Amino acid sequence: MDIRIPQSDPQKVRALKERFSLDLLSATILERRGLEKAEDAVYYLETDTIYQHSPFECEDVYTAVDRISQAIEEGERILIFGDRDVDGVTGAAILFRGLRKLGAKDVTVRLPEGDEPYGLTADTVAEIFSHEYSLVITVDNGISAVEEIRELERNGVDVVVLDHHIPGDELPGAVALFDPRIGGSGYPFSSLAGCAVAAKMIWALEFSRTPLYGSECIVLHAEPRNGSVRINAVRLENLIEIDRITEEVPEEAGFSAAKDRLMDFLAVNLPIMVLDADTEKKMLRRAFGNGVDISLVDIRQKLEALMPRARNHSLFDLAMLSRAAKYRDGDKEIETLVSLFRSISIYSYPSLSKDYDSLMQLAAIGTVADLMPMKDENRIIVKRGLRLLSENPLPCLRSLIGRQNLYGKRINTRDISFYVAPVLNAAGRMGHPMDAFSLLISEDPAEAEGLTENLIALNRQRQMNEENAIAAVRDKARESYDKLDGRFVIVSDESIPRGLTGAIASKLSKEYSVPSLVLADVGDRVSGSMRCSDRYDAKAFLSSFASFFDDYGGHQCAAGFSMPSERKDSLLSAMEAVIMAMDGAAAAAPEGTDADAVIPPEYMTTGIWRLSSMLEPYGQENAELRLYIKDAVISDIIPSKQDQKFMRFSLRFGTYAWPAVWWAPHDRESFRKGMHVNAVFTPDINFWKGTEKEQLLIVEMEEAADE
Length: 707
Hints:
With about 700 residues, this protein is an alpha/beta fold. The chain is built from 24 helices and 23 strands. The protein has five domains: about 55-210, inorganic pyrophosphatase (n-terminal core), CATH 3.90.1640; about 215-350, Ribonuclease H-like superfamily/Ribonuclease H (Nucleotidyltransferase, domain 5); about 360-460, inorganic pyrophosphatase (n-terminal core); about 485-585, Roll (Diaminopimelate Epimerase, Chain A, domain 1); about 595-705, CATH 2.40.50.460. Strands 3-2-4-5-6 form a five-stranded parallel sheet, with helices on both faces. A hairpin with a 7-residue loop joins strand 19 and strand 20. The two termini are about 15 Å apart. The relative contact order is 0.09.
């Protein structure tokens, strides 16, 4: 086997190990996976809501909050316009649930039905006028609907765009745009799913109903130094840091530039939050003298009510116990105090914490289904959502989880990708996305059970249609692959249903290990879907042919377009010319097997599964943990049936023999009991009849060479 293991920087590994109290293997793998900044470790080690970015970091969110709040208060007719895929449907459900909870009475949801194209069109604009909506909120679409939104705004219909697709050269003239991919939006993470943007919008609206909205304060801590007092102060607005100061003030009386800078920072008529006001006042008197009286607000009582374990602990004690301070490079005490103040503020309002958690379940499903990168706050959104799905799923999801044999299991991203998302996605692909939406907003268990049965039946039909469509185009796919010199696959066939272009493109891309484009003819229109691995950029590729499209959009791994049929032949010719001019080496799949580390026998313990749990959730840009072991011994082989596509056996390495499963093994008959082998595996959990057991999921295996 050709095993590729990334190099590591021993100095960076050591720094991670010491700062976060990690074992050597965990620190090494995190460093090899690109963890360089300390603040990024929070996304591997935490799940708390307070570590997500605030939606108010996007300036347009303030305008969106005001306009949506006005519509709710005045009883306006609101339309939520989503998309037919899982991201769009979960996003629409999140908005609908959230707006109804906030008091909106007249809210309608509209998703593209049948063969309708993606996004706002002239027909949907006319429909909006006919139903007299005064506010349209798009979710998972809208950023490219420049002309449609211009027409709506011109006729008195306001639009708030909640999207995550890459914008074109011209932004729509909506009332507000919340799309993290807009350059200069202010939002610090560009790869949120559309459903996560919707959840953030609901959180912002809930936040605006609390006294926290529009509030400013200063969080302060003073501590003694040799002959001076060190003062740290952080200014917050809507719980977002907007400024900070650190000064050491000599204790002797008299003029000090540090004193002047501090007084300028503090003398802004804002409440100053501290822990243990009497202690802080003593420090401030030592710094400024007895003649200066600074009013302080003590958060001790609120802190202990929320976190009883903080009772009788000083800020220094709490800083030693807190993980929050480890993620920032500032003084531990002030970083801990700011984190505690944010926690107190958010957890004082269930609408910002406990109630918001229910939306995380839907956001997690949509984020995984839409192949968003598992990095930054997407990790917290998905981790938190999956944990809640496992422990206390929404009533509307319980029937689906039960039918897919996931009850009692720690649900992971693989479960969402294989057992949950396809069922929800089937509704849109079969032209009935409102069926999935109806399930996601249902509060009646009996209704949810019936809707689940319907979706499962639709998914079976979708699978049959997909298999038939792939069979019908398989020869064309091979011809295209050969014609394009193994760089790309392009398939166009009148038999392809419009709703299955994405699924077929995904299967062909995986089968041939190159980007794939599938086109479907719908009347006098053509719809296309492109899928590729994260080594390519689907949206960037399509942007080269923007002049052919009436509409296109997407992200790195998935994109799509629509256009008149008469442009198809010209488009295909142009694409073929560009593809054949591409560097052939760039399109070739790399040879060999990737692994995170080679481990010795003494490392082969259940700690491997704890490491895997820390690295979860897995997905785009965060592949499953792979470990390489040498000279393991096959201690037992379970006989398999002739039609089984997997091999079950036990592999002894270290102290124990571990259950192992290898899907689609090559040369199965050549492996025998007692053989010494080298293997690359993923730590996996086998869930069977309510019991979880560690097992090795074999990626590649070969007989070990004699030393």
